[in-house]
Specification:
The protein is α/β, with parallel strands linked by helices. It has one domain (3-174): Rossmann fold, CATH 3.40.50. Helices cover 33% and strands 33% of the residues. The protein contains six helices and nine strands, in the order H-E-E-H-H-E-H-E-E-E-E-H-E-H-E. It has a five-stranded parallel sheet with strand order 4-3-7-8-9, with helices on both faces. Strands 1-2 form a two-stranded antiparallel ribbon. Helix 3 (33-49) packs across helix 4. The radius of gyration is 15 Å and the shape is globular. The two termini are 25 Å apart.
């Protein structure tokens, strides 16, 4: 499928979660077998080009795409979790969102020193979560220099924010606005 055909599979829900927001819903994309397979193949190709030795995905939708990309590449998957979800001592980072704060955690044994880890997520908006995940992986000793996304909302500046910290981004599709 072409990127335009895949983009057509993403449902836009107006005024969710607040008035004026155009929510880009991937439920319709992941429910379409051929579209999901084509999306995962595209993401995997970009991760492969970066020399991915592991794939990290942020909870929750990053798990969908990240785990599938890891399987496609034959490498391990590193879940970047919300607080309190891992049963072992964790490495964590607090970060700011557009309207508040949050925290991400990983099992510090999930990556090896110097291991090249590519971040995978469904969408990049302001980049706050992806920046925090990249920093967290780096603190654990990983080389985190590339992130791939299904959707970019370029008007919100997330890709530029990641670039400023040395993380290159690729996105399958982009939508104007937020």
């Amino acid at each position: 499928m072409t990127p335009e055909q895949l983009k057509a599979l993403v449902r836009t829900v107006p005024d969710f979660p607040a008035a004026g927001i155009q929510f880009r819903d991937i439920t319709t994309l992941i429910g379409h077998g051929e579209g999901l397979a084509a999306t995962v193949a595209w993401l995997a190709d970009r991760a492969r080009e970066s020399g991915a030795e592991a794939v990290a995905g942020m909870e929750a939708r990053g798990f969908i795409f990240g785990a599938a990309v890891a399987v496609e590449l034959g490498v391990g998957f590193v879940p970047v979790r919300k607080p309190g979800k891992l049963p072992v001592p964790t490495l964590g980072i607090d970060y700011h969102l557009e309207y508040g704060a949050d925290r991400l955690e990983i099992d510090p044994g999930a990556v090896q020193p110097g291991q090249r880890v590519v971040l995978v997520d469904d969408l990049i908006a302001t980049g706050g979560t992806a920046r925090a995940a990249a920093e967290l992986l780096r603190r654990a000793g990983a080389v985190a220099e590339h992130a791939v996304f299904v959707i970019d909302l370029p008007d919100l500046g997330g890709a530029a924010s990641l670039a400023a910290m040395g993380v290159r981004t690729d996105a399958l599709m982009a939508f104007a606005g937020h």
